[in-house]
Amino acid sequence: MGLTQEKILANAKKYFKTGEKYSFMTNQLMEFLGQDFIAAPASTMTSLHNAFEGGLIDHTLRVTAYAVSINNTLPETLRVNQESLIKVCCLHQIGKAKLYKENTSQWHRENQGKMYDFNDGMVSMSVGERSAMYALQYGVILNEEEYQAIVNFGKDST
To answer: How far is CA 49 from the centre of its chain?
Structure first.
């Protein structure tokens, strides 16, 4: 499954409008992420999720909608600030924007579903660490909880 170009552009527009509305998308970050982010997949393999062009923003928008929905079902005393929740959800995987490159091996694509490879030219760090770095480097202000939520994305909490 993939997305049409129209859906990719509609998702990008929604993502960036959300970023402007909740004041976490700076002009510098938007420019840095650019087309790489709009086209980025969420994963490398078809056996995972959204391993197709535009998959990262599509995934991010879904995660954000689910998180807001779940947060709204919690008792008032357990809810987190919705603006902060949306900010963290929308920024937690921006580190994938330049992380993947298209796999040129037709054999791996057809036989293993490996649609993307990792960009070997990047310094090794977790997606959360890279996401927080990008956000801070390009003018996003994060409080301690937001920073920790992004940096700890994907880490085992036990």
So the answer is: 12
